[in-house]
């Protein structure tokens, strides 16, 4: 278990020189795919899942529109890769054992995501609590939030109310026990 934690820390280490060299979308794609997530680019229906099959072409041509981090090892440490992404409209975090409240707070404070993110799904992430969900209130353009199987959510009604107050246009779908 210690080895996997170390390896995940290596996967999530931000390479700022790489971001400068290839641009934020390419660098973030590399990070996400290394960690087992999928990305979809603007103008494409296909999910990119193969690191070795990343599209080539002019730098900046491929803009990440959606992230599916199901069962990936993304963690807070790598979230700096998200800073330069300007076109991400949907994110799915499902069965991400390293996603915790600090990650959601960081997501919510990412200026570009505050503008572009429209849909967010958080499913079966055991380390997420009410505090992390409430932190999402800064995602002012968020239109849809789906929360399911989050045992750390203890104050379901209160948390939902706080979010609805902060984001009146939000469609909030809860599947919490």
Short account of what is shown:
The protein is α/β, with parallel strands linked by helices and 177 residues long.
Structure description:
33% of the residues lie in helices and 18% in strands. The two termini are 30 Å apart. The mean pLDDT is 93. Helix 2 crosses helix 3. The chain has seven helices and seven strands, in the order H-H-H-E-E-E-E-H-H-E-H-E-H-E. Strands 2-1-3-4-5-6-7 form a seven-stranded mixed beta sheet, covered by helices on one side.
Write the layout of secondary structure elements.
Layout: H1 2-11, H2 16-22, H3 24-34, E1 38-41, E2 47-48, E3 64-68, E4 90-94, H4 101-109, H5 111-116, E5 119-123, H6 130-134, E6 144-148, H7 156-166, E7 171-175
Parallel strand pairs: 3-4, 4-5, 5-6, 6-7
Antiparallel strand pairs: 1-2, 1-3
Helix pairs in contact: 2-3
The CATH topology is what? Leucine-rich repeat, LRR (right-handed beta-alpha superhelix)
| Fourth-tier CATH superfamily name | Ribonuclease Inhibitor
Q: List segments where confidence is low: pLDDT < 50 over at least 5 consecutive residues.
A: none
Q: Note the quaternary state here.
A: single chain
Shape: globular
Organism: Asarcornis scutulata
InterPro entries: LRR_dom_sf (IPR032675)
Protein name: ATP5S synthase
Q: Key features?
A:
LRR_dom_sf; ATP5S synthase; 7 strands; single chain; 7 helices
């Amino acid at each position: 278990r210690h080895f996997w934690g170390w390896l995940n820390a290596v996967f999530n280490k931000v390479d700022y020189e790489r971001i400068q060299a290839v641009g934020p979308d390419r660098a973030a794609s590399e990070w996400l795919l290394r960690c087992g997530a999928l990305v979809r680019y603007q103008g494409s229906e296909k999910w990119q899942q193969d690191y070795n099959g990343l599209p080539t072409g002019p730098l900046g041509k491929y803009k990440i529109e959606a992230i599916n981090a199901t069962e990936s090892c993304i963690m807070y440490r790598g979230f700096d890769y998200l800073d330069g992404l300007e076109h991400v409209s949907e994110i799915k975090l499902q069965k991400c054992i390293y996603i915790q409240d600090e990650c959601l707070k960081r997501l919510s404070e990412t200026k570009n995501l505050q503008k572009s993110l429209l849909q967010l799904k958080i499913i079966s992430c055991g380390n997420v609590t009410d505090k992390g969900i409430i932190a999402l209130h800064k995602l002012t353009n968020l239109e849809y939030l789906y929360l399911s199987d989050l045992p750390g959510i203890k104050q379901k009604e209160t948390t939902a109310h706080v979010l609805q107050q902060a984001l009146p246009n939000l469609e909030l779908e809860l599947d919490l026990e």
